[in-house]
Amino acid sequence: MLDHLPPPRLTKGKATEPSTSAAVAGEIDPTVPWYLQVCTLTRLRRHREALAVLRHADPSPPPHALALPSALICCAALSLPSGVAQVHALAAKRGLVPASDSYILSALLSSYCRLGLLPCARQLLDEMPAASTPPATVLTAFNSLISGCALHALTPACFALFRRMRVHVAGLRFNAVTLLALLPVAPATVVPQLQALAAQSGLASRTTVANCLISVYGRSSPTLARQVFDEMPLATRDLVSWTAVLSAHAQGGLAVDALELYRRMRGHGVEPDALTLVGVLSSCSHLAARSVGLDVDRYVRQRLPGFRANVQLCSALINFHARCGSLPQAQQLFDEMPRKSIVSWTALITGYGMHGHGDIAINFFQRMVSQGIRPDNVSMVALLSACSHAGKYEEGCKYFFAMESTYKLRPTLEHYACMVDLLGRAGRLEEARELISSMPMPADGSVWGALLGACKIHKNVEAGEEAFKHVIMLEPSNVGYYVLMANMYTDSGQQDGVARVRAMMRERGLKKEPGRTQVVRSSVNGRRPLASTGEENL
DNA sequence: TTAGGGTTAG
What we know:
Layout (H helix, E strand, L loop, with lengths): L20 H7 L6 H10 L3 H9 L11 H11 L3 H13 L8 H13 L3 H10 L7 H17 L3 H14 L7 H7 L8 H10 L6 H12 L3 H10 L7 H13 L3 H13 L6 H14 L2 H14 L7 H14 L2 H10 L5 H13 L3 H13 L6 H13 L3 H13 L7 H13 L3 H10 L6 H13 L3 H14 L4 H13 L3 H13 L31
Helix pairs in contact: 2-3, 2-4, 3-4, 4-5, 4-6, 5-6, 6-7, 6-8, 7-8, 8-9, 8-10, 12-13, 12-14, 13-14, 14-15, 14-16, 15-16, 16-17, 16-18, 18-19, 18-20, 19-20, 20-21, 20-22, 21-22, 22-23, 22-24, 23-24, 24-25, 24-26, 25-26, 26-27, 26-28, 27-28, 28-29
The structure holds one DNA strand.
Keywords: Repeat, Transit peptide
GO molecular function: RNA binding
Protein name: Pentatricopeptide repeat-containing protein
């Protein structure tokens, strides 16, 4: 079977293979039937080898049905649509599709979706004889297609299928897997509706469903995520629940709460894994919580021996060391990584940039580009910020203009804020003001705030007053800006100005918190929004 | 077989 497939290029079991050869040697027993070998190799993600076994399998008796889902998974993973079509034909010949075998049906649907062949998947579902197919199979088929559409962020299609399945699937209607597929792509207004549906159907008490809700709410509201977490019975919380709620707080800028959750998690005897530690390290970096971060570093080195191959964990460690530990440590980790992502590069560039090593930051940026990594918006912010901190006015301008012309990136508010900062620090307040006027979108608090900061450095009270007027309109409760303006008045001996700012703060019920004199980032900025494509209603 | 937790910016 599968004789039309291109021959596999057998890899030598290097870093791309998630399992070690010793583990495989233990699991692959040449005496077991070939179709079980296929299943095992597939589970180990050794797709090419699984297909090789399949290709050389004895064609009589005909291929065991158990091997077909594995074959499909391998073909999808290796982007072999012809292989999927062959298995489809084979399964059809043996009467396993469109209806009778739930495993093969959902594997086919998901393989077509993974390969982007959504019409094929759609057709398969439409061919399913609704009357004679067991309801559980219909449910699974709908779930597979909904998950496939979710994979391609086709929110309206997901919900259209969901409406259709609730009519079709007698009795069962939907299950936890349906909710898990829909929640991540649901528009913000629909998430609570799905949550209500989960509660009505008794699925809300499932750990997986609660975990998914925590993660989805966590993108926009750590508070809602926390509510779901708090309502979970203690015994049903698992490592994923803790990680999801912790990450929600870390992403929402609530680093103190994230670390408190970590402390509680450990108190309950739950051992973190790499994903948990990514969130913990992110919070340590924000808070400059050096001792906790160093504990995590030790834990990783002792308990997670393969951590260097984990790009996300390594990037988080680099970020931590670069921001509040040491640049040499960050650099060493970076050098040791077998594969680096744009995030690893950006973490390093940020680290050098924020410690005033603009030249090194620029050098790494250029090395990154020369290795074929196309800069994204975040790496450009890191670079421009590095230029700004090191007073590299000309380089900053050069890269800002290169964004659109060379890298095809449209500058966002963050980039404008960096440029206003760069121009402002260089004393070019007039140019900074002109840049703001030329922006294609209205300036936000961070842009005016950058100008205000520059005015403070260069003691330009008049320009500062204008920036202040704008910034407190945009972020009226951000104490940092009032403090900045008051300090400017103090520096220039204008006590009446200081009194005015203090009066404004009193009127607005704002207090300067001790030890918090820096400009506080607006909590809504930089947050991933909930998916908002289309107006979905259930 | 469909399915839950993640990193980088000022």
